[in-house]
Design goal:
Layout: H1 2-19, E1 25-33, E2 41-47, E3 59-64, E4 70-78, E5 80-89, E6 98-99, E7 104-105, E8 109-111, E9 128-131, E10 135-140
Parallel strand pairs: 1-10
Antiparallel strand pairs: 1-4, 2-3, 2-5, 5-8, 5-9, 6-7
Length: 142
């Protein structure tokens, strides 16, 4: 009887452990279009926190601009709701340069979902998308 109890406990615990979702990660393939020149680098920021949007990045990537369209991959992303901001750092200074009193960007920029940004940057919510499997997105520079 003792062996049967131990066997049943082992069977139920192994079923419980197998039913748990594994700690999976995903890859995000990003294509950025409309580069006007081949100077500088593309700065990519992926975040899952509204309070970090346009401030800090959960995942970052910096790549040389070598073509009018750049494709890159960010790997090992946890399942979640994310937002991306990108900019073409034409002068390699690591920041999005602005002009005029209203701090309008003087370097090309873009966001996931390609929302309008006429009167300031879009909200985190307008740029969000779900990553629950490997995914591909396209961003148009403005």
């Amino acid at each position: 009887m003792k062996k049967l109890t131990v066997l049943l406990v082992l069977i139920f615990s192994s079923n419980f452990l197998l039913a748990q979702e594994p700690n999976t990660t995903h890859a995000l393939q990003i294509t950025v279009n409309n580069f006007e020149n081949l100077k500088g680098k593309l700065q990519v920021c992926l975040t899952d926190k509204k309070e970090d949007f346009l401030k800090q990045c959960e995942y970052t990537k910096v790549v040389n601009v070598t073509d009018n369209t750049i494709s890159l991959e960010i790997a090992n992303i946890k399942t979640g709701i994310y937002s991306i901001s990108v900019f073409h750092d034409e002068n390699n200074n690591g920041v999005l340069d602005t002009k005029y009193f209203f701090k309008m960007p003087s370097e090309p920029y873009g966001f996931s979902n390609n929302p309008s940004a006429r009167f300031g940057p879009p909200s985190f919510e307008k740029c969000t998308f779900l990553i629950d499997k490997d995914k591909q997105i396209s961003i148009e520079l403005k």
